[in-house]
Amino acid sequence: MKNNLISHAFSKLIIKVLLLSILLPLFYLLMLFTITQLDFNWLYQFSPNLYFALLKIFKFIFLSSFSFLFFLLIWGLLILYLVFKMLKKIDFYITCTVLQIDHLFNKEKTSIELPKELADLENKLNYLKMRNEKNERLAKESIEKKDELIIYLAHDIKTPLTSMIGYLSLLEEIEDMPKRKQRKYIKIALEKSYKLEELVNELFETARFNSEKIILEKEDVNLSLMLEQIIDDFYPTLKELNKEIHLEGKKNLSIFVDPLKMARVFNNLIKNAINYSNKTKDIWIEVKEENKQVTIKIINQGSEIPQEKLDRIFEKFYRLDASRNSKTGGSGLGLAIAKEIVLLHGGTIEAKSKKQETIFEVTLPLN
C-alpha cells in the first residue's frame, strides 16, 4: 500500500515535470512571436515611460544572453514547488494514517476514515479493527469460561473427595465390619478415586493449556497401526457400552507426524464420538489417500449438532453439553487442542453433522 501510494505520487510528479518542460519553451516562443509581430504603438501613446520599461524587461527576458538562465531558474523553481506540494500531500496522508491507526484500539471510534486516495488502506484498517475487537471479545469469553470451569472443577472435586473420606472413615472405625460390606465400601471409594483422578487431570489440562507451547517431534508413523492401537485402548469402554469401532480404508499408510501429539488428536476425536453416539451404535473410522493427502473420517451416529454449535465446536472451553453432571461435560479443550495440533502439522480439521450422523474429518499432508 505504501509503495503504491509513493509510486503513484512520483508518477504524477514526473508527468507534471514533463508537461512543464514542454509548456515553458512553448510559452517562451509564443511570447517572443507575439511581441515581435504585434504593434504596441497604442501603449507608447498611452504611456511612453511604461512602453520603454516593458521593452527593457522584454529584451532582458527574451533577447538577452541571460534568457536561457532566467527560464531555467523559473523551470527549477516550478519543479521545486511541485515537489513541495507532493511531499506535503504525502505528509498529509501519513499524518491522517497515523492519527487513524490510534483509533484501531479505540472502542468509542466506530470506524476509521481516510482520504478517498487511501480507500484500500482504510478498508484494511477497518478490517483489522473488526478482527481486533472480535479477538478481544473471544479472549474475554475464553477467560470467563476458563474461570467458570475451574470453579466448577473445584466444586466437583469436593464431591468424590467427601464421599471417599466418608467410606474410608467407616472402614477404619468399624473393625468387625462384614467382608461383603467392606468390599462394597472399598469399591465405592475406588470408583470415587477414579472420578477424582479424572477431575484433577481435567484441572491440570485447563491450567496448562494457555501456557503450553506445542513443539512437534516428527517421524514416520504407520497410520493404520496407530489407529488400531488407539482403538484397543478404548476396548474396556466399548465393551461396557456394547459398541465397536470399525477401521476401514488404506492399510500401511505412512505419514510424517509427531506420533504422541497425533495420537492425542485421534484419542480426543474417538472419545468425543463415543460420548455423543447413540446407545449400541458403532463408530466408523475411514482412511482415504488422495492428491498427496490422507483424510481420516471419524463417524458416529447420534443427535444432529445444530449449526450454531458446530461453528464453535473447536473453540477453547466450549462444551456441547454444558451440564457438569453429564459424562460429556468435559473441559471443552479436547477439540481445541486437536485443532491446534492438526494445524501445526499443516493439515485441516472440520466437523459436519446431519441426519443423525456426525463426522470429524482430519486431512494431513503425506510425506
Could you please describe the fold and organization of this structure?
- This protein has eleven helices and seven strands.
- It is of the alpha+beta class and 367 residues long.
- The chain folds into three domains: 2-109, no CATH class; 129-209, Helix Hairpins; 219-365, Histidine kinase-like ATPase, C-terminal domain (Heat Shock Protein 90, 2-Layer Sandwich), CATH 3.30.565.10.
- A five-stranded mixed beta sheet has the order 2-4-5-7-6. Strands 1-3 form a two-stranded antiparallel sheet.
- Strand 6 and strand 7 form a beta hairpin.
- The radius of gyration is 40 Å and the shape is elongated.
- Residues 324-328 have low confidence and may be disordered.
Overall geometry comes to elongated
The number of helical runs is 11
CATH architecture of the largest domain: 2-Layer Sandwich
Q: Give the terminus-to-terminus CA distance.
A: 38 Å
**What would you give as the CATH superfamily of the largest domain?**
Histidine kinase-like ATPase, C-terminal domain
Quick check: average pLDDT? Answer: 80
User: Which topology of the largest domain does CATH recognise?
Assistant: Heat Shock Protein 90
Roughly how many Å is the radius of gyration? 40 Å
Helical amount among residues, as a percent range? 55-70%
Whole-number total of structural domains: 3
- Give the H and E element order: HHHHHHEHHEEHEEHHEE
Low-confidence stretches: 324-328
